Amino acid sequence: MAAAERQGWLGVEELKNFSCQNLRTIDQLWVKYSNGNFGFSVQQTIWESIGFANNVRDYSMWWNFGNLVGWRVKDRWLPYERIQFTAQAPKGHLPFFRAWIGMRKTGLVHSMHQVNRFHAFMYRCAFCHLTQ
Q1: What is the DSSP letter of 99?
Q2: Measured between alpha carbons, how far is 122 from 72 in angstroms, rounded to an integer?
Q3: How many helices (H) and strands (E) does the chain have?
Q4: 107 near 78, Cβ under 8 Å?
Q5: Are 108 and 78 in contact (CB under 8 A)?
Q6: Mean of the per-residue pLDDT values for the chain?
Q7: Average pLDDT of 110-118?
């Protein structure tokens, strides 16, 4: 078991090697039961729409993504308590994982480490050819 897994989250290397079959299964369940509003493939489509490229990782893309999925409102990251775990959440708002977004009581934090972790996961989604 990887050290990150023992800590309860997956690091960049684990995300890059996440089982495509398991990823597709989880995504298909999210997409099916949210009527196409949530899921990794939904997030991947949004991520790609803002200029996803294998070697591009920057805060502006991360902020744009946060704005589009409703994790940022009025240029501020939402505190965890304001993440909407409901069907009325914006498209792509879920799934939400603290693992790739640093959390503090004052809200989400961003660092290149979190951007890299999320980017690695989105790259894995693209590699696994998730479809909506």
Answers
A1: G
A2: 19
A3: 6, 4
A4: yes
A5: yes
A6: 80
A7: 70
